[in-house]
Amino acid sequence: MPAMIDRYWLKAGWLIDGAGTPAQSNVLVEIREGVIVGLADGAGGERPDPGLDFSESTLTPALVDAHVHLFMSPIADEAARRRQLSARYDDLKPVMTRHARDLIRAGVLAVRDGGDYGGFSLRLRDEFGPGYPLTVRAPGRAWHARGRYGKLIGRAVGGADLAGAVADEAARIDHVKVVNSGLNSLTRFGRPTAPQFETSDLARAVQAAARRGLKTMVHANGAEPVRRAVVAGGHSIEHGFFMGSELLSLMRDRGCVWVPTTVTMKGYAETLPPGDPRADVARRNLEHQIEQVSRARSLGVQVACGTDAGTLGVAHGPSIFEEMSLLLAAGFSLEEAVAAASVAGAELLGVEDHLGPLAPGRPATWLVFDQTPVEMARALRPPSQVFVNGAPVQEE
Ligand SMILES: [Zn+2]
Question: Which of 120, 172, 181, 327 is 20 to 30 A from 25, alpha carbon to alpha carbon?
């Protein structure tokens, strides 16, 4: 087994490096002690031993889901869903662990959690520890304004106290999550919600986090909630439905990353009962968001793939391929979609040291897709194998 061998070669039919470079064909990869030491043209046909033959397959970096909720399952049964949304850690731990396994099987080796009411993802992160194949980056509980949306994923705080609350928590969390708008209406297309916080309060919180080395992710839909988050220096906008072109340009200028979570609306549209009018609004939201993503690409906004896994109809793991497919529908090339779902996410999470592009000097961590790039672009499927540091990940 290669796992036992310090040094081996691998022949890849195609390699997508995750940096947005066009797919290379016939690549010979040299691996030493879990690290890629060389990439060479393997077209000559000669293959050094010991070697692995993936000449019919495509290699990509491991994927990163920049927005999940590990504590939530995408189940449609409302009673079961309600139970899950008030359960204790001991009840949820098996569920969260199953989600983690589903993510690993899909080749997602790092997630950025968007928060839960009990700080459960933080606890799970500590229990998994650094040796676990899935890196969990957790905010603990999100912050939302009193009387506004966000109870399920966090706790309420007054705007004036937001920065202080962030400073108090900073030592135990990986990033800050702030909720700055409501949810998208599923009864009235495009109905905006008011921002939750003042720009100045948001800015103080972002700075308090940044002084402690933490980034801030902001849930925001609609122009004004997004505008405040971007002006305040937020590092990423989550969802960003109906923000409009002007805000996309501002995001590009400020280096703010967009995590559009487009697949959430596909999830609603496909999971709500037939004939439910909310499904139609969800479908319109979906179409509208695809147009925004297309505009973001033309404008040069940095997009990272995040699914909001755990929301209705959005499963941990497989949904990353649906989100990538929606990027393709918005005009991304396959290589750009892979970059958004790997290196862009790794940078946003600060895990690019072990989940960066496939290049010499980088960890031998990749996914094997039994498809050509043309087939992948037509119908993305989960990988057949996941490698970490030169060795295949074994199912538990
Ligand atoms: Zn979320």
Answer: 327
Is the confidence at residue 2, as pLDDT, over 50?
Answer: no
Segments making up each domain of the chain, as ranges:
2-61+355-392, 63-341
What's the CA-to-centroid distance between 378 and ligand 1, angstroms? 28
Put residue 321 in one of left, alpha, beta given phi > 0 → left and psi -120 to 50 → alpha.
alpha
Instruction: List the beta bridge partners of residue 65.
Output: 111
pLDDT (tens digit per residue) in 119-178: 999 999 999 988 899 999 999 999 999 999 999 999 999 999 999 999 999 999 999 999
Question: Which residue is associated with the tokens 């609306």?
Answer: 265
2-61+355-392: CATH topology is Urease, subunit C; domain 1 (2.30.40)
Q: Is the pTM of this model over 0.70?
A: yes
From CA 74, how far away is CA 77, in angstroms rounded?
Answer: 9
CA 150 to ligand 1 centroid distance, Å = 10
Neighbours of ion ligand 1 (CB under 5 A): 114, 308
Determine whether domain 63-341 maps to CATH 3.40.50.150: no
The predicted-structure confidence for 272-296, as pLDDT tens digits, reads as follows 988 899 999 999 999 999 999 999 9
Separation of CA 117 and ligand 1 centre (Å): 12
Question: Residue 310: left (phi > 0), alpha (psi -120 to 50), or beta?
Answer: left
